[in-house]
Amino acid sequence: MSTPGPRLGIAGVAAETGDLRLTSEDLARLTGIPQRILEEKMGIKEICRWGPDPGPDAMALKVVRRALGGLDPRKLDMVLMICHPLHAEAELAGYGHVLKDRLGAERAEVLEISDTCASTCLALQVVRDLMAAEPELRHVMVVGIMLTMDSVDVTNPRTGFLTNVSDGVGAMLLSRDDGDELDTAVLGGAHEVDPSFIEDLAFTPPQWEEPAGPKRRYRSLLPRRVDIVVDKDGFKNRLDPVTYPAYVAVIREALRRSGFRDDEVDLVGANTMKPSLWKAILDNFKLEPSSQMYLPEGHVAFLDQLLYIERIRATRRFPDGGVVVLTSAGMGFHWAATCVAFKGRRTEGRLP
Amino acid sequence: MSFGIAGIGTVLADRRVAAAQLGGAELLADVGFEARHEPTGGDVSPWELSAAAGRAALADAGVEARDLDLVLVVGRFRIEYFTWALSLGVEKELGARCPAMDVTDWTAGSLLAGLRLARAKFHADPGLRNVLVVAHQRQADLVDPRAAQDQPLWPIGDGAAALVLRRDAPGPAVLGHAFHTDGRGSPLLGMRSMVVDEGPNPDSFYEQQWAMAKFLTVRDAAAWRADYRQRAARQLPALVRTAAERAGLRADAFARVLGGFLYPDVADDLRAALGVPVRSHNAHGMLGGAEHGFVLDELRRDASLRGQHVALVHAGLPASFGATVLRV
After folding, report:
1. Does B213 contact chain A (CB < 8 Å)?
2. What's the rounded Cα separation, in Å, for the pair B136 and B109?
3. In which region does residue B51 sit, left (phi positive, over 0), alpha (psi from -120 to 50) or beta (all else)?
4. Based on the number of CB atoms within 10 Å of its own CB, is B252 exposed (0-12), middle (13-18) or buried (19 or more)?
5. How far, in Å, are A50, A145, A191 from residue A117 at the CA level?
6. Continuous H helices in chain A
7. Interchain proximity A216–B45, CB inside 8 Å
8. B88 vs B94: CA distance, rounded Å
9. Contacts of residue A197 in chain B, CB cutoff 8 Å?
10. Cβ of B66 under 8 Å from any chain A Cβ?
11. b/e string for B202-226 if b means 16 or more Cβ within 10 A?
């Protein structure tokens, strides 16, 4: 069974992580969490941050050019930007405008998906939907910038679960594939939410007694960091029982909407998470962790999915074709999954 | 695939400041706004505005929140009212539980962008029945009405609009779109920061609370307006023609072209270029594209346009333009 929808593939992908490294040893010193716990229980070997040079702006342009391959940027119809909601560019002209100008993508519209770490999975779905409805749309460049800056305070014991967050940039060129020339097909997706968590985490000045929530304004030039509004244990106790089934449900649904069975998935490209949760999710699809990829650079927000695709390509992992489900949770909470098939003997006749 | 607008909700920040109060009659004639809206006391969030508009649209449509299949929230994100996902905040307030997305639109005006995405989603997913699209703006305090050079930005105000879209419902049908952005636009538009007094300090360490605040600003108002007018004159008529072509229509097929906020000279240029009546909605200032909620509300009350084609146009900052074709 093939999926209805446009023929759409990943024509190019490129990603880079921040050039500075904090090792688990550094993090143990900063957080007070034993190095063994960081590595074994939380799955953190190192995290990445941007140094002053070349910095995320220059690197974003570089990865976009790599992802373009030989495509003339004037042929881009859309720059679909993903910046974390914490990004400083948010208030005047989004970074997509800057990039569009620097790139010379004269015709490109600028749209931005702002759904935290679920954004890449959702961006793939949005582009697929738009291409189905709008025949004139041919080339979309999805660009993501992750710049943690002051938002994650690794010394804050209440937000220890954010210790694995890393910086990076990534770009992915999505193109129509009417000529069946691309090696991938972007297929169906699924999306679940639970809005009951939306007020648990704030972005707030650390010295305020009552944290800034979404209804309380503060001047953005004040120092701030992500913090937990309610108690940490309460947040964890409510989230743990729902996140695992939600991941499994969206992966299953993305496969189903793409015409594949549970046992046909080859790789689950999940956002970097604690190893125990990751293994539990894989068990549902009879996948061994040793057959999968685990990103050693930490959780590069919505860029994890781009890193997976880039590495699958670089290692020629599926010479006979393969089925990948990209999946991620996003703060608030979202769980999203999108299926990407690599073309080959194993997927022949199964794709649009 | 067809869907109609089953419900419309609009809200404005409670304090109406007439243009005449700010700068006299010439401000109305030149900048073109009748009034801007801002919250009394300043502390109303995009979350509250969006939820209020969503609630009103649901009531208007007679749809329960639990029957929604998708919530799309479109607008410019304000980091000073931080939330991970405004769409999830709206869901929490309304009691909805369905896929929800936040999209920041830089080209089309927020409500027009939401209509476009909803159209694509209806097209892609036959199971989709009810979609809530919310557009919002909460930027009034990014403009300093004491700074005379910033007059062209004074219309920026606060409000939200929401639409409930229902598959196969009667009502205006969306036939085509075209959007464009001129990148960063003129370098004469930027931000400046200054120290502001935020009132008595409850901690009483200092008597007053002081903070660094950011404001939108233009460096040379006349030059910036000329630049913007030129960009709009180049883009808007072309976009209306492209959107018409994509809808299988001629550009002169429109009974009317309806703008959100348009500077008067921009509206004049568009009228001259297209040769059809152009009406802008400047009554509430600039609402980031949420003005189109008010436009659509007026449209459904206007029996004279029933069955005819109209183009909704948007001209936004820094240099973003869009057109959407509707059959009323």
Report:
1. yes
2. 10
3. alpha
4. exposed
5. 19, 11, 13
6. 24-31, 35-36, 55-68, 95-103, 119-133, 232-257, 275-284, 304-314
7. yes
8. 10
9. 88
10. no
11. eeeeeeeeeeebbbbbbeebeebbe
pTM score: 0.95
Query: What three-state secondary structure class fits B141?
Result: helix
Q: Report the side by side order of strands in the sheet with A322-330.
A: A184-193, A334-342, A322-330, A267-270
Record: contact B214-A116, CB cut-off 8 A = no
CATH (one of 3.40.718.10, 3.90.150.10, 3.40.47.10, 3.40.50.2000) for B3-170: 3.40.47.10
Give CA–CA dist B326/B311, Å, rounded.
Answer: 6
Contacts of A108 in chain B (CB under 8 A): 181
Determine contact: B201 vs chain A, CB below 8 A: no
> CB distance from B106 to chain A under 8 Å?
yes
Residue closest to A325 by CA, chosen among A241, A245, A243, A248: A248
CB A285 within 8 A of CB A268: yes
Which residue from B24, B110, B14, B83 is spatially nearest to A85, judged by alpha carbons? Answer: B83
Whole-number pLDDT of residue A57: 84
Q: Is A330 on the interface with B (CB under 8 A)?
A: yes
In chain B, positions 268-307, which contact chain A (CB-CB < 8 Å)?
Answer: none
Tell me if B3-170 shares its fold with B176-186+219-327.
yes
From B31's Cα to the closest Cα of chain A, the distance in A is 20
What class is the B176-186+219-327 domain? alpha beta
The pLDDT, as a whole number, for residue A87 is 63
Residue ranges of domains in chain B: 3-170, 176-186+219-327, 189-218
**Rg of chain B's alpha carbons, rounded to an integer?**
20
Q: Which domains does chain A have, with CATH numbers?
A: 8-182 (3.40.47.10), 185-200+230-347 (3.40.47.10)
CA dist., res. A13 & res. A309, Å (int): 7
Residues 103-142 of A with CB under 8 A from B: 107-116, 122, 126, 128-130, 132-134, 136
Torsion angles phi and psi, residue A282, rounded to 5: -60, -35
Cα separation of B221 and B188, whole Å?
8
pLDDT at A220: 67
Mean pLDDT per 10-residue run, chain B (328 residues)?
A: 90 93 81 90 88 98 98 83 91 97 80 95 94 94 87 93 94 89 86 81 71 86 96 96 95 93 97 96 93 95 92 92 94
Helix-then-strand count for chain A, H and E = 8, 13
Structure tokens at A101: 């100008």
User: What single DSSP character describes residue B121?
Assistant: H
In the DSSP assignment, the letter for residue A254 is H
Chain A residue numbers touching B97 (CB-CB < 8 A): 193-195
Question: Touching check for B89 and chain A: CB below 8 Å?
Answer: yes
Q: Give me the residue label for tokens 């093939």.
A: A2
Nearest-CA distance B304 → chain A (Å): 30
- Between chain A and chain B, the number of residue pairs with CB atoms below 8 A apart is 191
Q: Per the CB < 8 Å rule, is A86 touching B79? A: yes
pLDDT < 50: residue spans in chain A: 1-3
CB-based contact (8 Å) between A206 and chain B?
Answer: no
Q: Do A128 and B181 touch (CB under 8 A)?
A: no
Rounded Cα distance between B298 and B259, Å, is 12
Q: Hey, is the C-beta of B119 within 8 angstroms of any chain A C-beta? A: yes
